[in-house]
Amino acid sequence: MPSSSAQDRQLSVWFEKIKNGEIKLPRFQRPQSWDRNRVVSLLSTISQNLPLGVTLILDVNEEQFVSRYLVTAPETGSRVTEHLLDGQQRLTALWRSLHNNYEEATYFLYLSKYDQALDKNMPNPENSGIHCRTRWKNKKGLRMPLWADSASESFERGLIPLNLLIPGDISVEIESWIDKAIAPLKPQSQVDNYEEKLMSWMTLKNEINTVIRDYRETIAHFNLPFLSLPAKTNKETALQVFINMNTNSKPLSQYDIIRAEIEGVKGVSLDEYQKHLNDNHPNVKHYFELPFLILATSALMQGKLPNQRGMWEMKKELMVENWGTMELGLAKMAVFMESQGIFDQARLPTNAVLSVIAALYTYIPETLDARGSFEVLLKKYLWSSFFTDRYENSAASNAYSDFIALKNLVKGNVNEKGEIYSESDVPVLNRQRYPLSTEEELIRVAWPKRENIRARGIMAIFSKLGAIDFADGTLLSRDALKEGKRHYHHVFPDALLKIAETESYLALNCAMITDKTNLNISNKEPYRYLKERYQWVDEDIVNTRLKSHLIPIDELKNGGYESLQHEEKIAKIKSDFDNFISKRAQYVVSAIKELTQGRDISAAEIINSVETK
User: Fold this and answer.
1) For 230-277, what is each residue's pLDDT tens digit?
2) N or C: which end of the chain has fewer CB atoms below 10 A?
3) What pLDDT digit, counting tens, does each position of 11-29 carry?
4) Phi and psi dihedrals of 49, rounded to 5?
5) Are the beta carbons of 83 and 57 closer than 8 angstroms?
6) pLDDT at res. 248
7) Which residues contact 449 (CB under 8 A, 6 or more apart)?
8) ∠ CA(368), CA(372), CA(373), 5° rounding?
9) Which run of H or E residues covers position 111?
């Protein structure tokens, strides 16, 4: 058996081979599966020119495996020289993100220097980083948000699209983008000191061009090494090597290392402290791993970022001294989250809010009036974090900024102008910078079982409003979830939508209810299907339970499919489903507006407010 050899290869060379069709994937490779967080992490590693690890290729004289091209790579039909055995997720993510051809995401390089709305309270803000913006199409077919396709509006946010950093000669595209990006900043000839301001503008243009050039150089010359199996390697051996290289191990966590440092401060065991917290406040652990919650909350209490950097920087002695206060803050956070209908980590839209709320509770007075008033503020913060894009990127940095502003508000501090801080100073509550989700966005949100802020936020609304179980009429609870009594189910039957080849796995087509399987009625009309499946007798009971989930009754009652011809049936199912999703989206948007104002509302009030408009 000839031995393999390790070799270096720059990313520009990888891209050239993919572009020419020289590299293909054996079809036994799983489909592209990386989520946006992993893509961002990969891009961050490369933009900082940090080591990434090796890939594995099999040299090809004659293809031993049925193969396919990387997703969105040109299908050239050229001679294949290499099969990519390990590394397809990385290379596909790089190829697609640097071409910016993901339908539901656009990737940017963030440069804080050019961010016109940068929070000045941020300690040591990140100078650069990779940002991902989720995208969707509205009813007019426009790709939202519109600013993500605008050079000037992106640049004022400190964002440069990653497709400008792709290896290759794209100098014309770069020049055009820079001109559009800074066009609003170009001085008019009639202004005072025109020549001086024009010179500054030209300096800015050259500076941006230099920044882009430098990042392009880093990416183009980034070394992505590979192991090469010779073409003589037989099929069985190549498969065995592929299996061996895809065996994962669990490395030591960064939080394990930090925890070890803390335990060395006073010779105390952090495990004992954690046990005390868990014994006295057992609900906290349902929301996230205790080590992280403890460290992140402690970091915020010391004015540090709730991430690895902040945890390293905080004083470990002070953390131990503040333990009792921190523990009580976490306990109150868990009670608050449960009051908002969120019971565990699997239903939590974003964990970034947990340490913020816990740390804020250490400053909120215990008096009933004051606590009640500030808990309204916490509600506004919580629901705004679920239904804006505030925490889709730089979650730790943004959580810190929001925490500082909220803390100033709670403590009644004054700003540099001598004015008392107000809600308008809290970034996540700024609707111009962070608008709330729209109907067009929500109707595209995928199944909530996946890690998706907006999807889980939608389900949290139903839970907050008191969604009643279809079968037994009970409210959702942590015990019911823990005992497996509630599951994600389609409201509009999946089997029916499959007939119409329509996507059924949408958050707005979901209800968390008791599992009762009855497959022989699963392709019936939605309303009759649910009524028969859960064996309701009284129609008023049916409607009450449906409304508690913000399910539109009239749109669900549409049916009459059995007598239709195939094409007519498909068209009507699609039309009925679109109407159903659209109306439920209206209900959810109405609920979002109320919840982000800190109001306690009922499902009936939401439905009535929409129907009486």
Assistant:
1) 888 887 788 777 777 665 444 456 566 666 666 655 666 777 888 999
2) C
3) 999 999 999 999 998 877 7
4) 60, 45
5) yes
6) 45
7) 488
8) 120
9) strand 105-115
Q: Both tokens of residue 557?
A: 């009652």
Asked if 146 contacts 140 with a C-beta cutoff of 8 angstroms, the reply is no
Query: Which residue, 500, 513, 520, is CA-closest to 551?
Result: 513
The answer to whether 97 and 164 have CB atoms below 8 angstroms apart is: no
What tokens were used for 139?
């009813």
pTM (two decimals): 0.80
Q: Which domains does the chain have, with CATH numbers?
A: 5-100+220-245 (3.90.1530), 105-206 (no CATH), 254-429 (no CATH), 439-611 (no CATH)
Rounded to the nearest integer, the mean pLDDT of the chain is 89
CA dihedral 452, 455, 459, 464 (to 10 degrees): 80
Phi then psi for residue 435, to 5 deg, are -70, 155
Nearest to 448 by CA among 389, 371, 507, 396: 507
Residue identified by tokens 């999946």 is: 494
Match 């009036």 to its residue by tokens: 369
Cβ atoms 429, 560 nearer than 8 A: no
Q: In this predicted structure, which of 30-34, 84-88, 596-600 has the lowest mean pLDDT?
A: 30-34
**531-562 pLDDT per residue, tens:** 777 777 688 888 898 999 999 999 988 888 88
- Collapse the DSSP code of 204 into the 3-class scheme (helix H, G, I; strand E, B; otherwise coil) and give the result: helix
Euclidean distance between CA atoms 286 and 493, whole angstroms: 31
